Amino acid sequence: MNVPIARQFFHREIQQPDEQINLERAALYLAQEEYPQLDVEAYLNALDTMASEVEERLPAESYPLRIIQTINRYLYDDLGFAGNTADYYDPRNSYINDVIDRRTGIPITLSLVYLAIARRLDFPMVGVGMPGHFLIRPAVAEMEVFVDAFHGGEVMFPQDCQERLSQLYGPVEMSPRFLAAVTPRQFLGRMLTNLKVIYLNRSDLLKGLAAIERILLLFPGTPPELRDRGVLYYRLNRLAESRQDLEAYLAAVPTAEDAGVLQQLLAVIRKSLEE
Question: In Å, how far are 16, 178, 204, 248 from 214, measured between CA atoms?
């Protein structure tokens, strides 16, 4: 199989230990598969420039909240970054080059821009995969402050997070795991899952497949992704590959709720391969 060069770069980047993965570089390799002419270094340089401009604006006393306020003024007031509420499911919202160019995106990609700038300021922040919404926070254990990059860098506290969760899901009690930091691999996996859902909802099977394949590079052998790839292979008439994935899924999760349906599909695939 001819593997896109961007995917090879992505795979090389994520082979490193989590703490060494350059999140924005890996995200640009994801985008480069969609935009083969994308100049990764040019966008990394753009982030360098943005961070330098924020640094020039920092007050002499650079406390965490002052750094956040300075980043907010620069990104949202000066540059006009904003959450894309008009077309949330536009796939361009998930590609970091488009987010930088268009100055709009979804919570996770706007968070990525924010994180990239903060890291260059030696102000480490981490992503927080709260259900239904993505936040970021300073990587300071005793500091329970969260930033909503989708809503203009709004500063939130744990009670605000509870209220946001209740707005989304009703009377759900906040769990500490909802506010736990995500690893770079989890961050990239969430970006790819967004793309997977968007493309499959648009019946773009090849791009949906590409998203799943990269999720499996991050998390090899994940049963739900093997199942979904197996079903896509079937729809794309790649029957031998479909059988392999579906058999692997059923071997890993033999009591899955969809096991019966998939066994029937496997019977059809095996019969077709024997003919």
Answer: 15, 25, 16, 18
